[in-house]
Structure formats: C-alpha cells, structure tokens
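For reproducibility, we list the full input for the methionine sulfoxide complex.
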Amino acid sequence: MYDFKFDTTDKSALYRELTEAADALTAGEPDGIANMANVAALLWESLPELNWAGFYRAIEGELVLGPFQGRPACIRIPFGKGVCGAAAATLEPQCVADVHAFPGHIACDAASRSELVVPILVDGALVGVLDLDSPLPSRFDGEDLAGCVNLVQRIAACLGGMAKVVPQA
Ligand code: SME
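The corresponding predicted structure, in tokenized form, follows.
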C-alpha cells in the first residue's frame, strides 16, 4: 500500500513532492497503463478541487480514454477537438480558465468549469495527454501548469511504455 500525504498549502512544494512520488511509483515499471492508473489515483487523491483526473492515449491519430478517476468519460477524441484534442494537435499544454468559453469543449461532466491538459511526449512523439478537470472556474494557474508539465516530463517514458507480451509455453 502507498500512503502519500502532502501539504497542499504550498503549491510549488506540493508539485515537487508529487513529482517525486509519481517518479517513485512508476520507476522500473514498463507497463504504461499501470503507471497511468497509479498517477491518476495519486493526482486525484492529492490535488484539491478536481472532478476528473486521468489520461487519454494517442492511438492511430486519435485520443483514446486511458486510466482515470472521476465520472465515466467520452472514449475517443479526434486530434483538434476539445481541450484534449487541442493539446494533442498543437503539442502545447492547454490551461483553460472557463471551459464554456473554449470553442469545441467536450463536456464529459457538466460540472467541469476549468481544465488543464498536458501533452505527453516521448522522444518527440505524442503518446497521450494528462487531463485535469475542476468544478471551479480558473482552478488552474501558472504553478499548476508548470508543476504538471514538469511532472509529465519526468515520468513520460514510463507512461508511454507497453507491457511486454510473454508468449505462453
Ligand atoms: N473536456 C475534455 C474532454 C475530456 S473530459 O474532460 C474527461 C475536452 O474538451 O477535451
């Protein structure tokens, strides 16, 4: 069992500790799905005021739902559609203060008001995105953006890995 406890009052310290914890959780594990599942749970448990935390994976030119915490979500998102698709198409993080004002926003949960999406790049190739949603408008600021970008960069290789298929004897 992992039992991480973080002080959420100092945001930059929180992201430093979260990044260390995410690194410790994923280091040495080659299965990207397992690592996404643990990191989604870590962020969901540790970041206040979220209603969704998880991953979409880049598969054959579209985003496909990956491990997450929160309400069931749309499964496939074309590149360029919504906030996640914008991050995938531009390879730039998207920090959206008011999702209702974002053209093409995909409302998986009507409660969502702001959103932060960070593309995950391994050797320059997109492997997926990290998506955080909040019921509060303007929930995510520059520290959240920098903290999540840094966390994703640190563990990107572990998120993009696939489990090795071991042939049965
Ligand atoms: N709102 C996202 C869709 C994914 S859900 O928020 C989980 C978007 O516009 O891309």
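The longest helix spans residues 142-159. The mean pLDDT is 93. Both points were considered when choosing residues for closer inspection.
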